[in-house]
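Schema walk-through. Below, the input block comes first and the output block second. Nothing else is stored per chain. Lengths vary across the set, and this one has 335 residues.
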Amino acid sequence: MKLGCGFGIMEPELNRGVSEEVPTRIEMPCMESDRKYQVNIPKSKSGLKRPVDERHALLRIEKDNAWIRSLNRQLAETLSALVTRGDPVTVAKTSGVLVWGTYAGEPEQTGTIILDHKPDGRFKLVPLDITPNSLLTDVAHLVGRDGSVTSEEGKHGLIFRGELRSPGEPIETEATAQEQGPEVAPGAEAPTGGFEKITGADAIAAIGQKVTLEFIDRGVKVRIRGKQVDCEKTAKHIVKGRPTLASQQGGKYMIEGNLNKPFLRKGANQQGPDANGVYTRLDALERTFTAFGENLTAVHAACLAGCREDTMFTIVVNDRSAGHCVISSGRRRLA
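--- output ---
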């Protein structure tokens, strides 16, 4: 059977179990000649589970690699066109297809996501295993039609819903987002003065934070200590990609990792401090709004002025040189 670039390659199923290994090398004949060339497909570090419903596509991302498994070839190739760049490779299997390509979003992230495609064109993104919210947000931005995507807190992390974008339909960029007008609803400026002062340990108690957080490596990384389940839950919100370190230390668990962009104390378009000592930052590409400072009530008020309350997540982090810092971030609130 002769196949050219862009065609699927028939291949026997490697494993009839729930998870299958990805072939590392596929031999492809070229239509223009009898010569054959080889396409190397990297192996995923995690088994690629085969979805059992034709509405579903499993997306696995490891740094700049993206693998898609689905029983529905059209859905798999549509998702591939939205989240990869260059020329992806499609491998036809006895049950569905595998598509591999170069991830088009922010690299150096790892996670697994299920896309549930509804008959009316809507979709739902659900995380599997330990998948950071930053990666979910990135994928939702790539696959969702502008203005249609919403998020909510689920059992294992954020769940995104929206209308699936058509391949070739433009993605909102930072420039177009700025051209569309104000990001925050008119009149939503944070009030000044008169805030009850809640800082340090009192702020930790007020938000019910069950772990201790500490800035490391000049504030670009964080150390999380506490019970394992609480550490992992917090890491899903604030750590970019997989943790760089995870270990049990006596009766406590510890995770270290790079902070997600919204929880950094420095970034583009940052303003402040205001009269209450609060800094704010709008990230049009991440579609987030962040506020941070010393006083919990002032930070909350500033963040609520720029983000949706149901998406806001707040942490209190210890800085050995400057004391405790309260950081709140959420999805930006449109006008």
